[in-house]
Structure formats: C-alpha cells, structure tokens
Amino acid sequence: MLTVEAALESAGPGLELAHGWRLHALEPISPAEAEAVLREPVAAVPDSLAARLGVLHIYAAPYLECRGEKEWVSAEPPAGESHSSLWLERPEGLALLLSFRDADAHDTGFELLAALSELAVPRLTDEEFVRYAQLIERELREGSTGEIDEEALQAREAAQADYVMVSLASTLAEYMHALWHDVEVRRGPEHLPPQFLRRRLELLQEMFPPNPGYILFR
Asked: Following DSSP, what letter does each residue of 171-200 receive, concatenated?
C-alpha cells in the first residue's frame, strides 16, 4: 500500500491519449488493461472542454482507500472507506486517479466522465453557468419532475444551495456519455422527462461541440 502521493511519484511516463493527456497504470493494473478501458471515453470528451482542464494525468489504480487523514492506493480491497475516483492539483497539472477493481469497463469509463465533469464545472464562465441555471428555472416553471441522476435528484429535493452545480456536473457527464456510445433514456417519476433532457443536451452541445466524427442525437 502506498500513499497517493507516493504512488504518483512511482508511476512511469505513461501512454498518450487524446487531448495530449497521459495515462499511467499503477500495479497490478497493466498499461494495456488501462488503455483498453479508457481510450474511447477520453476520446469522446469534446476538445473545447478538455482545453478547460489543461494538462491531465490519469492514473489507473487497483483500489483507492481513505484511512485516517490520508488517501492510499491499495492492491487489496479496502477494509474501510473507499473511493471510485479522486483528484489532486499538482504543479504539472491535474492528477485523476480511478479505481479499476470491482467495476466493469463501462462503469470505470463513466466514472472518468463524471470526475471530468466535476472538475470542469468550476472552470465554466459565469455566462455559461447562468445559461444552465436559467434552463433549470425554466424547467421548474414548466413543472419538470425528476433529475438526471440520483445525486442531482437528492440535491433538488433537499433544495441544496449547490443544486444547479450538482445538476450541471451530472448532465455534463451524461452528455459525454451520449457522445461515447448510444445510451437509453430512463423513464419514470424520478427521472428527467425526455423533452427537458434534450434541451439540456442541446445547450451543452452548443457550449462544447462534439469532436469530428461524434454525434449526439442518432
């Protein structure tokens, strides 16, 4: 077991991905395994959004454990609290760690997109954030029910002050998810109705156009 900082220092030069980002595999994850899982979702990230994040190093870790006041990379399942991802701001750029064990390839890829979305939201301009907030206000006026995912729904129902930010991060992740591959629209009272979902995705498509060869609505 290594602290996160020690694990990052021990990582090799890694492999280059889209956007000039680099992928590092922390043992016992192999570089080939990490690349097979992450190359496609990384490539689906719009170039304009990737530019907001700047230099990014992605680290494929077996497990991420929280013990005491430190975060650890472990080869064995954590006995206590674990994380699916975590990130650090470093002088050479962002470091994003992803837990690879006990998750299938799709879930790991989506966790990557969710983490990138959380990192991207604070880097949006005030104008971009206001445009999304206005869209949420319109949804509420029109009687929208449900949300894009459980976390956003909980934030809405609890009237959290950061509801719009949570909703934006979740919707941005789903936007990139839809660029990566075909997705099924979930229906039900707890889910966002299709007409509202489409408006959100169209707004994000305008803000962060898909890369050549990627189509949002098929």
From this structure: HHHHHHHHHHS--PPP-STTBPPHHHHHHH
* Residues linked to residue 56 through DSSP beta bridges, in sequence order: 94
Q: Are 14 and 83 in contact (CB under 8 A)?
A: no
- Predicted confidence (pLDDT) per residue in 68-119, tens digit: 788 999 999 988 789 999 999 998 899 999 999 988 999 999 999 999 999 9
CA distance 150 to 171: 12
Instruction: For residue 28, say if its preceding peptide bond is cis, omega within 30 degrees of 0.
Output: yes
Helices 105-120 and 163-180 cross at an angle (nearest 10°) of: 130
Cα–Cα distance, 86 to 7 (Å, whole number): 13
Report field, pTM of the whole predicted structure over 0.85: yes
Spell out the domain ranges in the chain. 2-122, 124-207
> What is the DSSP pairing of strand 2-3 with strand 70-74?
antiparallel
